[in-house]
Design brief:
The structure holds two protein chains of two kinds.
Chain A (H helix, E strand, L loop, with lengths): L3 H11 L19 E3 L2 H12 L1 H5 L15 H4 L7 H18 L5 H4 L12 H16 L5 H18 L2 H13 L2 H4 E3 L2 E3 L7 E3 L1 H13 L5 H8 L6 H13 L2 H13 L20 H21 L12 E4 L4 H4 L8 E4 L13 H6 L8 H12 L2 E2 L21 H9 L2 H14 L14 E2 L2 E2 L4 E3 L2 E3 L2 H9 L4 H14 L5 H17 L4 H10 L1 H4 E2 L15 E2 L18
Chain B lengths: L1 H13 L31 E6 L6 H4 L5 E2 L17 E5 L15 H8 L14 H9 L8 E4 L10 E3 L2 E2 L6 H9 L15 H21 L4 H24 L24 H20 L5 E5 L16 H7 L10 H23 L1 E2 L2 E2 L4 E6 L15 E4 L10 E4 L6 H10 L24
Parallel strand pairs in B: 1-7, 1-10, 3-12, 4-7
Antiparallel strand pairs in B: 2-12, 3-11, 5-6, 8-9, 10-11
Helix pairs in contact in B: 1-6, 5-8, 6-7, 8-10
The chains are: A mainly alpha, B alpha/beta.
Chain lengths: 565, 444
Amino acid sequence: MKFTGFSVLFGVLLLAGCEQAPTEPLDNASLPRTRLLTGEQYANTIAQVFGEDISESILPPMPPMARTDGLLASGAAFAGVTSDQISQIQLSAASVAEQVVDEDHRDFLIPCRPESISAGDSACARQFLGETARLLYRRPLDEARLTELVDIASYATEQTEDFYDGLALAIEAILLSPEVIFIVDQTEPDPNRPGEQRLDDYSLAARLSFFLWNAPPDANLLLAAENGELSNPEGLARTVDRLIASSRLEAGMRAFFDDMLGFDDFNSLAKDPMVYPMVTGATLADAREQTLRTIIDHVLTEEADYRDLFTTRKTFMSMSLAPVYGTPSRDGWVPYEFDESSPRIGLLTHVSFLAANSHAVRSSPTLRGKAMRELFLCQHVPEPPPDVDFSGLAEDENALTARARLTVHNENPSCAGCHLITDPMGLSLENFDGAGLFRETEDGAELDITGELDGIFYDDISGLASAMRDHPKLSYCLVNRLYAYGTGGPVTLKDDRDTLSWLETQFIDGGHKLPAVLRDLALSQAFSSIRSIELHSVDIEGDSSMPTNLNDDNPQLTLASAENN
Amino acid sequence: MSKMNRRRFLKGTLNGGLVTVGLPLLNVFLNDNGTAMADGLAIPQRFGTWSWGLGMSKDVFVPKNTGANFDLPPEIAPLAAVQKHINLYTNYNVFKDDAPNLCHHSGWVVLRSGIAPMTRANRPGETIDVSIARKIGNATRFRSLSATATGDVRDSFSYEGGNSVNAPEWSPLRFYERLFGDDFQDPNAQTFNPDPRVMVRKSALSAVQEDTKKLQQSLGMEDRARLDQYFSGLRDLERRFDLQLTKPDPREACIISGAPNDLPSGLDAGLVQKRHRMMTDLMLMALACDQTRVFNMFYASAFSATTKPGYDKPHHTATHEEAVDPALKCQPNTSWYTRQAMEEWAYYVQALADFKEGDGSLLDNSLIYATTDQSFAKIHGIDGIPMFTAGTAGGRIKTGLHLDGGDTPACRLGFTAQRLMGLDINSWGEKSNNTSDEISEILV
């Protein structure tokens, strides 16, 4: 087997001394995917091949992805490209190409000079286009296709009488290719598993680099693929270790956590300035950044226990955030630690989480509870029920607190089942208003922040933080999302249960350390072995999240307007 | 190298030089009666959609009278000035059959696609604007354009397929730049200089198309379909390149104003109104310059989170939580949100009516189809979901009417609209939504 032997060996080495060294299930394999590049991946591609200035000069022409089983990245496995979007891809390609050959860039992006600008130079075009296409296609071009590109450049040069215009038009054609715009998993027979398939080396390289860096393979990774290094365990391990050791891992993991936390909401998030005058667009942008910095510092720089993110008081502070947190700060980002008496403890008390899961004008215990379950525990809070008569539902206008307002839901059987899933823990964050600012009271009324999370009762925010940190599904959920993100599509419990279970055990036994689980996943058989596509049915609606029903006898208990409260 | 033969041929047609065509600007625009261009070219017919969120409160929305000169209850009072330009359709129904009633989803999906969705992630078929654009959108640079007043790129009721949404323009500045940036060919320019690079682009497309076909062969069925769609998109790009090599017809109404300033994020009703009006003005410019003939404007989403100054519940929250005032027969704040939407619908219609084209207006040559996601949002009702149209589609439909559908399929309106736009279909919609019955009362 291609990796099974290695995986077993690796597992044994890693857990030498453990009595129950887990081994990866023998039939682990993932699905071949055809993923549309996300906007960020497109931008990273252009930056990597042509430079950040060119990348930043255009808006990535990719459509927004539909969040699928918790991740936008998984939506990319199903997203199509409309005619309108292709025209935008073409316009961006033209803009990029024009800049690549302009006088500011040509001398350092193009490795040769034409003998005559007006007459063209096929050898120079071939040299430049060969290497550029290899980086953009993420694999070398065969001779016929390279010749075709050179022909396009030559023809264009004849038409425009400008060698560089000719190159630009050939670059445009490359950037319009579906093999550039889609990340297509290409497979080959697996010599170690007769009758089965594995990713070919270039597809494996792309899967690795988009997983760990959110960017295409660099020249070294392509070289490793070309040399066959990814087909042997030692070579693959060396490569994965290089990718993980690279400073680019940070960008990759920021992208992952940004996706997992649903931070795309920040792209259009705003708070009502009359209600929250202190919270501007800059505040919200910094709130997103604060959480990402905190996560990256914790899980990568410190290599700390993932679970402690929910109880850590360490974070970073900026000038925009300082007034919201009621603390002095100075220019730039500075490490900051909330003191022990502060109600700020862990990610759930960050302005990002609190503000993103609230309304523009008020807090929402239901939204916060729903987000806790869906983002961090991979549980699925049911949709609002169809055809439920809310006509009798009108809140008490005299109710001062959210708890009092939500009482009406909890007295209504149609609503109570699901609001009990979200509200008990959401209400524990009511000391933070809709923008995440601390408040002792709401409209003068005392706040009761006692609560319960899946059988763990607590009195205050730190109790909630601990209950979340110790929740048995917390580690599973991270592993689930990482696996989906890494292999490029949603997991299914039917096919991936054993893989996830194995990976979760690895993660737990390894002390809940992110770099270790990234390595385990990247080197796993499941990551590079491919399930036969004839045998699987892709279920777009597939959802590995577990339904959350408090009452097993009545699975229809549903959430009354979870978006609302 | 055989492909290069075609390129050599193309080279001969342009020969590397620029062609400059001088255009006389006199008498280029209209014929004597203003209905067609001087050369007999008809003023284009156009189809638009408009959408608002969270339906209505029947008691204060649905007029007591049908037919012409219908009364205007409080929620639609803002429509007084445009009443003569619109039709209101009430008591039409969308049917879910064996599909669940997916709150804030089923209603709009049926009205736009004719099919009840099975899940929230499911977008069955394609939307009506896409079908119509395939018919009437091929002569313009953009087959269709979509814009949203919400500032959120995720808000769209237009899709080519389940996972291929037409993402809307969400920033006024970005929309302006897309419309009138480098790629724009001013139809009234005195000279026409076809860009030799366009010829090369068109020629190079064949190689990209071949790549697409080759790639398809190695993929599973679902992914093959996505590549097939990509291939279709490349063909549409080819069509656009052809347009760029053709002198555009002059458009008298095409006058381009300066670039707008962008707006901050947010859903405060005042801000949404401002964004809606800026997007509307840009969309009208695009129409007047014949950049598209199919256009979607999105005022508010199904879960509309528009906020009202001094009120702590966004629109969607208010629909569920606010009590019905028995004296007013509505939820007062929820109704305020609906009136805001109707004010913007009126602005939209008036703007089209005020935009002169020939001896009429843009509205005269358009049909706008306006829909929402629920009827009574408080209970997620979809029965009697209200709809509007505006414009006469070139004098082919009557306006100023209130029609009572008598519980017949709401898809009759979408069917009628598609027939008016020249689609050769005998029915539209699936299961109970299927209809072959036009709303004949509105046909001239």
